[in-house]
UniProtKB/TrEMBL annotation:
One of its GO terms (cellular component) is Fanconi anaemia nuclear complex. GO terms for biological process: interstrand cross-link repair. InterPro entries: FANCA, Fanconi_A_N. Residues 123-450 form the Fanconi anaemia group A protein N-terminal domain. This is Fanconi anaemia group A protein N-terminal domain-containing protein. Transmembrane segments: none annotated.
Length: 461
């Protein structure tokens, strides 16, 4: 108690001053008082907080709280390791909360002390300060110019450090939720100073975190995969569901727009049989599963293709189709609807891109085991003897269909050629010669392929 009395005695000369002349008695430029704060034990701190609240002449206790906070936490903060239980930390928090209620604690002043004392704060401390309404996560990171935050968060997530106070399973979703809240909430709904700057900062942080994960996929590296997306799945209990979906859709767009010259639509037509969901890397599958298992749907793939004017990487686009059909609760039904719409679009306004997208999507969908229809059945039900196509569509529309199929013969694999050779087309009487010509081309192409190796549609490995 001697230190407590000493500090109170050092205040006595100030008590005779007029209230208007009082300044913060405990700013850090008073080194003597700061040193005395550092020598306080936790009991002295509690008693001194009570005295600060009672004494009307004392305007602020921020420096007291900061110095005692540093006494117990600075070593761990500098070392970035938290191995103790820090029983004093809860008492420091209660002192801060009591001073906040008495309007004798300044978050901005505490922030300035943090900036002066520490270059950066560990993720655990950022969360603790934010959770307890002392210093908020995003404003601190932005104004302290915390440029290495993406790396710090990913390192913390990968380490999976468990602690009784700094709770891993709360820290990760809480901090990511704050980044998402600022990054994706429309500016018109956020009436705060610096919101535009914070929004840009948070988007940059999230983009760097996502890019670091996608780089492992794009480079096909075998290193362990850091799946932090799983912590975002249930953030729709804290954030608007549309906001969470927007994040996952952004990841999907990054995948589909990566290196768009790698596979064009015709290459995809030839090689798509290699992109079944059970053939892709586990890292890519896990990422797409996180995207589709709850938030994104098949229509989002179509929307992104349209947003990008069809300039997509067709490998990743069709892989997305495959995983969507496999993992999305509505994937199979959505795929049927989209495929039907694309075919109708082609027949109404003949654009070859609509037809080829229709075939790409239906073939990719039919490759997935949980889709309850194979490609021969779809082909027969849509164009063949089971379709009644000639009654539903005019001779002109049948000619459009045949012209598109003929255009694609040169890109067909032998398995698809055999399917389309074996099944009849429901053609108008005057168009039987077109069917004959088409099948002749298929036979010629099949003879060419017999002389060279090709991908097998029926392979399951």
């Amino acid at each position: 108690m001697r230190n407590n009395l000493c500090i109170l005695q050092s205040m006595q000369p100030f008590h005779t001053m007029e209230a208007a002349d009082l300044y913060d008695l405990f700013l850090s430029d008073n080194d003597n008082i700061d040193n005395q704060y550092c020598s306080l034990d936790i009991d002295d701190f509690q008693k001194l907080v009570i005295e600060f609240i009672r004494n009307k002449d004392i305007k602020d206790g921020t420096s007291l709280c900061f110095q005692v906070f540093c006494k117990y936490m600075s070593h761990s903060i500098h070392q970035k390791t938290f191995q103790c239980e820090y029983p004093e930390l809860s008492i420091v928090l209660k002192g801060i909360q009591h001073l906040q209620k008495a309007l004798k604690f300044s978050s901005s002043l505490f922030f300035s002390y943090l900036i002066e004392e520490f270059v950066t704060l560990p993720v655990e401390i950022l969360w603790w300060l934010h959770k307890n309404d002392i210093i908020y996560f995003v404003p601190y990171c932005y104004h302290s110019k915390f440029v290495s935050l993406p790396e710090s968060l990913l390192t913390y997530i990968a380490a999976k450090k468990q602690h009784s106070i700094f709770i891993y399973n709360e820290i990760v979703p809480d901090l990511i939720a704050e980044l998402l809240r600022h990054a994706h909430t429309p500016t018109r709904l956020f009436h705060l100073p610096y919101h535009t700057e914070w929004k840009s900062y948070c988007r940059t942080v999230l983009n760097k975190m996502v890019d670091s994960v996608l780089d492992v996929i794009f480079c096909n590296r075998s290193e362990s995969f850091l799946n932090f997306f799983c912590y975002i799945q249930n953030l729709d209990v804290l954030l608007p569901r549309a906001l969470v979906k927007d994040f996952f859709k952004t990841i999907l767009k990054k995948l589909m727009s990566y290196n768009i010259d790698e596979f064009d639509v015709y290459s995809a037509y030839t090689y798509q049989e290699l992109w079944k969901s059970n053939r892709i890397s586990s890292n890519l599958f896990i990422t797409l599963k996180e995207i589709f298992i709850k938030h994104c749907i098949f229509q989002d793939i179509i929307d992104i293709i349209e947003d990008l004017d069809g300039k997509v990487n067709w490998k990743y686009t069709l892989v997305a189709v495959a995983v969507c059909v496999k993992e999305s609760p509505s994937g199979s039904d959505d795929a049927k609807d989209v495929i039907s719409q694309l075919l109708q679009q082609y027949l109404k306004k003949p654009k070859f891109c609509s037809f080829i997208k229709c075939l790409l999507f239906v073939r990719q969908t039919c490759m997935e085991e949980n889709f309850k229809m194979d490609y021969p059945a779809w082909y027969s039900l849509t164009f063949g003897s089971r379709s009644n196509f000639k009654r539903k569509c005019s001779e002109a529309k049948f000619k459009l269909l045949i012209s598109a199929l003929i255009e694609l013969v040169q890109y067909e694999s032998d398995d698809y050629l055999k399917v389309q050779l074996s099944l009849s087309l429901d053609a108008p009487l005057m168009c039987n010669y077109l069917v004959h010509n088409y099948k002749s081309l298929c036979k010629a192409r099949l003879n060419e392929l017999d002389k060279s190796p090709s991908v097998s549609y029926w392979s399951t490995t």
